[in-house]
């Protein structure tokens, strides 16, 4: 069981009840660790306000291009993307860049 | 032996492979899309700001003593632009005076909120702010225009009006240089769109860092031409800049949206493609047009649709003025005035429609009049 902070920024909060920050506790039944990939599945299944908005967040089974994913302020590309194993207190933020400037 | 400092978030030493490739001492936080270099936060601030400084200096964007207006929408690009320009101006002593210039299109629930952000920025960065509204300039707000002309054309109206509004706002302030936050992604998107549409004339001009029409006193420039959107957002995030991030309430331009999606997918596969597209765009040279033999002065052309060409002396001259408002225009009447005229006609119609539909005794009376037995 892991408790992490999840943030939806850059306008993404619109599809998550207009709330930008969440404390999320994720539990996994099987023997594997809770990694970011698992957290994303959890978010899609439990936190989306409207299941139809999945395409705004996910494309081809990963985070949609144009959404910046940071783990503790580090680009998730440097942390092994979905394979990063979460620890208590980690901050995972998703920032959309797909809007006007 | 050198021991790298601890990971700021966790008390473990970063592995050597995780270190910044520039300073080799702090943990890398990001991978630059341009060259895939892994760098830390402080080195990122340094390279990001320095690249913009180099862009400004190499292209001689500013002159000492010049006053410049930053087109500020409250969004990420213009917020970072205002912040970085103020910083660089002080650091490198450009000697320019920066003013924030905002356009209020009159979109309730979008622009009023983003203008609140600009007003906060005004205080945070200690820069003067001027707001010019569509209502004052054209006597229309975007909300009224959409109610009249429908949502599908909203971007056409808004785009034409905003371009003029920025020029006029700058004119009001006595400034002849408007700086906008267009970034590398925007520019690559535009190049791509012009290629896809076959708009060769625009393709030629779309990558220029400074644009100025002959005869116009207002010059425009884009210091973020080579800055990736991803880096701008990261910069704003790491610096905790206060920006507004909601998509405009009216439908985004469909074709641009598709081009953007295409670009984002390309970027995921090959991050350098954005800068590569800009490079391709810059390298395009339009083949000079063969000069047509000018028809004799009294020649009148009859077109296939039956219309007749009018004689206008020296035909097309860049730097013509609109007959109504005096704004720069390639035609006799500028695009904004043309759109406005169309709108005025439909406003009259809407007013009458509305009048009839009010509930009450009068409406009941009219309904009864129409009844027949």
TrEMBL record, chain A:
Subcellular location: Cytoplasm
SUPFAM superfamilies attached to this UniProt entry: MoaD/ThiS
Coiled coil (residue ranges): none
Cross-link (Glycyl lysine isopeptide (Gly-Lys) (interchain with K-? in acceptor proteins)): 101
Post-translational modification: C-terminal thiocarboxylation occurs in 2 steps, it is first acyl-adenylated (-COAMP) via the hesA/moeB/thiF part of UBA4, then thiocarboxylated (-COSH) via the rhodanese domain of UBA4.
Family according to the record: Belongs to the URM1 family.
Function, in words: Acts as a sulfur carrier required for 2-thiolation of mcm(5)S(2)U at tRNA wobble positions of cytosolic tRNA(Lys), tRNA(Glu) and tRNA(Gln). Serves as sulfur donor in tRNA 2-thiolation reaction by being thiocarboxylated (-COSH) at its C-terminus by the MOCS3 homolog UBA4. The sulfur is then transferred to tRNA to form 2-thiolation of mcm(5)S(2)U. Prior mcm(5) tRNA modification by the elongator complex is required for 2-thiolation. Also acts as a ubiquitin-like protein (UBL) that is covalently conjugated via an isopeptide bond to lysine residues of target proteins such as AHP1.
GO molecular function annotations of the record: protein homodimerization activity; protein tag activity; sulfur carrier activity
UniProt main location, coarse: cytoplasm
Lineage: Eukaryota, Fungi, Dikarya, Ascomycota, Saccharomycotina
PANTHER family: RURM1 PROTEIN
GO biological process assignments: cell budding; cellular response to oxidative stress; invasive growth in response to glucose limitation; protein urmylation; tRNA wobble position uridine thiolation
Gene Ontology terms: cellular component: cytosol
Pathway: tRNA modification; 5-methoxycarbonylmethyl-2-thiouridine-tRNA biosynthesis
Pfam families the record matches: Urm1 (PF09138)
Protein name: Ubiquitin-related modifier 1
Residues bearing PTM 1-thioglycine: 101
Keywords for this protein: Cytoplasm, Isopeptide bond, tRNA processing, Ubl conjugation pathway
TrEMBL record, chain B:
Designated gene of the protein: NCS6
Protein name: Cytoplasmic tRNA 2-thiolation protein 1
EC number assigned by the record: 2.7.7.-
Source organism per UniProt: Eremothecium cymbalariae (strain CBS 270.75 / DBVPG 7215 / KCTC 17166 / NRRL Y-17582) (Yeast)
Ranges of residues in domain Cytoplasmic tRNA 2-thiolation protein 1 C-terminal: 320-350
Subcellular location: Cytoplasm
Family: Belongs to the TtcA family. CTU1/NCS6/ATPBD3 subfamily.
Recorded GO CC terms: cytosolic tRNA wobble base thiouridylase complex; mitochondrion; peroxisome
Limits of the tRNA(Ile)-lysidine/2-thiocytidine synthase N-terminal domain: 68-253
UniProt xrefs under PROSITE patterns: UPF0021 (PS01263)
Function field: Plays a central role in 2-thiolation of mcm(5)S(2)U at tRNA wobble positions of tRNA(Lys), tRNA(Glu) and tRNA(Gln). Directly binds tRNAs and probably acts by catalyzing adenylation of tRNAs, an intermediate required for 2-thiolation. It is unclear whether it acts as a sulfurtransferase that transfers sulfur from thiocarboxylated URM1 onto the uridine of tRNAs at wobble position. Prior mcm(5) tRNA modification by the elongator complex is required for 2-thiolation. May also be involved in protein urmylation.
UniProt pathway annotation: tRNA modification; 5-methoxycarbonylmethyl-2-thiouridine-tRNA biosynthesis
Keyword tags: ATP-binding, Cytoplasm, Nucleotide-binding, RNA-binding, Transferase, tRNA processing, tRNA-binding
